[in-house]
Amino acid sequence: MKKISRRSFLAAAGLTVAALALTACGGSASSAASSVASSAASSEAAASSAVSEAASEPAAEAALPDGTYAADFDTDSSMFHANEAFDGKGALTVKEGRMTLHVSLVSKNIVNLYVGTAEDAASHEADWLQPTTDVVNYSDGTSDEVYGFDIPVEALDTDFSVAILGKKGKWYDHTVSVRNAQPTMKEALADGTYTCDVTLEGGSGRATVESPAALTVADGRMTATIVWSSPNYDYMLVDGEKYLPTNTEGNSTFEIPVAALGTPLTVTADTVAMSKPHEIEYTLTFTLE
User: How far apart are CA 54 and CA 58, in angstroms?
Assistant: First the structure.
């Protein structure tokens, strides 16, 4: 669903300069006033120089090239986190070196975010992050509207403070981080052959797939080679398409499309190891080594 509202957060750094007050002991009133005036002028000059230096410093560059990524959104709260449908992840966009993470939450109970502390949030209303309305589709076929937020990210793999505002009007402090960013756009990887880690979940837990696996990118499309721990899989289903084994001997091997890295891909594999063929649902997650 297209987000209906977005606001970018502009972080501002403030500089506090303490003035030095001098008291002339045993001197005249005029010399004391002169000392204070001289000190104030020096402080003003120092402040001006500091501001100039801060303004001349280049903005911190993102650790990633421009593009779109799936990234883990780690929080310290069981109430404030990414929606379960996204497996704890958000969509990280890097544009002109600036990083923004869009996170769909679990409900509409959190109405604003502020990058900083709860103590500072009330006096910085202009910097409150406004929600978007996101439609989330769950694996059981149901869907729901929840709030999402676009959170500016200064650095990856680094804890930072985010305050949340609930419907009752009270701000709460939390610590979050953005980690394990993986490219999601097909254009993010140049055509070629790569090696990626594969995580398999689902089924009885007895089946495995070989990891790392070969990942081929051709014309911007990603294809992974999946080698099962058994020769008894006779087809796989991915996004409604049926894929047959690429081998006739040894453990069942398939070449399947991968829509995105770092995001669980739901697949179905049919096994003939039982008395009757049986389809089993799994999830596969591919991450670059």
Answer: 9
